[in-house]
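Batch 3, record 17
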Amino acid sequence: MAAEVYWADLRVAHGQGLLAKTEKLFVQARLREIVAPRDLVAFKIHFGERGNTGYIRPQYIRRLVNLVKSIGGKPFLTDANTLYVGSRANAVDHLQTAIENGFAYAVVDAPLIIADGLTGKDFINVPVQLKHFEEVKISSAVYHADALLVVSHFKGHEATGFGGALKNLGMGSGSRSGKQMMHSDILPEINQEKCMGCGRCRKWCPAGAIKVNRKIFKATIEAKKCIGCGECTVTCPEQAIAINWKTEPDIIQEKIVEYCSGILQNKPGKAGFINFVQNVSPECDCYGWTDASIVRDIGILASLDPVALDQACVDLVNKERGLPDSRLAASPEGEDKFKALWPAIDWQRQLKYGEEIGLGTRKYQLIRV
Ligand code: SF4
Ligand code: SF4
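Prediction for the assembled complex:
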């Protein structure tokens, strides 16, 4: 059976803005039904890395927070610490960055709780018995919440082709060690010809896996220590470090989906999903920058089914033509935008596997709000 996916496009009537339309979307998509009075309601969001500008505007979150409060729920905003070294790798830096990016209490009207605690060690082992994991490490605040609203910025993603509800929920709610397990099949290599031995990658490596030979000015990665976080690949000024994507993108997507399964296990009928298909950047919000949107802003979509929701968002983006001055300026209508951005990644894997293990369906009915 097809799942219902609701779509609020960006047109508004005189006197009624997008914030009001977002409230209407929440109600029409039956997201009210996931919240009961006195429920602790986790808003799983991404606060954006320091310097990033693509994440969801906090004003939208405030409206959703107030809707949840009007039902009697107790909302809080949450995300887990990152594996890579950046501005969100521990709760102190994470909260500071979230506030700098506009998620202060005065703006969003809800407390922020870092889901896996001060240093990422606050998690619950949840049994799943799936292909890659027997158990997954779920951030405690997400696990213990009574209800879950997964609010995601939909965009391209360098590890999974695109990043939507499944990516935000699965990777984003894993503890730091859980993230390590999801990433651990991806091992980068250093191109010795391109490497200048500057040592920047060594400074950012969280696992101490990189050595720089100061005599010949070349860096090498110790495979045994490498946790596959990919941090070095984005810090190298010479682009000397490329991740070996041969089979790994499929595996990381399946692992993310297995984490989703573990998270949703104790929340039957208590999880809803909203995707903001705006500022569709080529890469995720974990970077300290946001490149130009690849297609025009499409709107805000919501569903009780994360697989159907992500599928609908992919389809809407792929129908568009690439925007001038973006990385996909020459891309015609109908071209697979995420394949064009990340040719080595089959982004469909996360949706197919999500369907296979019962997280949802790729068949959907799109309903305009
Ligand atoms: S060498 Fe491995 S652990 Fe170190 S930054 Fe690169 S991917 Fe991460
Ligand atoms: S950052 Fe790049 S150039 Fe610098 S040492 Fe690492 S691999 Fe070599």
